[in-house]
Amino acid sequence: MFHRVLFVSFLTALGVGLSFAQEKRSGGLHANIEYGEAGDEKLLLDAHVPQGSGSFPVAILIHGGGWGSGSKEGDITPLLEPLSAANFTWFSINYRLAPKNRWPACYEDVKTAIRWVKTHAAEFKGDSHKIALVGYSAGGELACLAAVRAGDDTRVQAVVGLAAPTDMPADMARRGGLSEAFQALVERPAVVDAATTKILEEMSPIYHLKPGLPPFLLIHGTEDKSVMHAQSVNLQAKLKEYRVPCQLLTIQGAPHRIREWENFDPTYKDQMILWLKTTLGGKN
Predict the structure, then answer these.
(1) Pseudo-torsion of CA 159, 160, 164, 167, nearest 10°?
(2) Which of 35, 67, 98, 240 is most buried (CB neighbours < 10 A)?
């Protein structure tokens, strides 16, 4: 014990993060871990640690809710059990919501979470070089945008977008103006002018594609009336123009609500896990 204290003190004196000296977390769920702070708001995540020795592939899960509602305990939870069973270290995050917090607060929180996970993954038996972003609905937009606009500090190795809106100008044109959720998020009127269009393009993953991006898996129902299936079809086509691997899993007849997808394709979670394992590699 005496030698361990000396070692930690030595690391501290050198300015090395204490995470290197911390013991790995025990297997199972670890709830409400603080990954950052924004103003007076603590940013929290839940983490799952597989049993056995690491390193395990990592998934960061980002919930939906139109950027103004939802939580890590909500719509994203159907994916937690299959990821746990497949021996993934996963982190499910909360982020700041509109209208209290305007764009880009939620996006900045996702980037903060990625940086935190990269720094702390080993403490949770995770491999910081095998990270996937997994986002549903609004969380899918955030996941895809973080991946396509990543710098060295936020780069990941795989992306899963589930019913993800990725072309905001096209979506708002379909709606005939800004939706109420978007008005709350960007604090703009319903009528789309040049300034609003610029914001919509900035937050649209399809406007920021380039070669060298990580592989994508898009999952989308054909009867989605909230985020049209064409959004994923068009993103896949555009990614392929840049020679970025992208697989589209279409769920015939499925609506937007993820909890109903299993009624239309009971295998979609298994297919997602297989894709993640194949793309990231790691322990079985």
Answers:
(1) 30
(2) 67
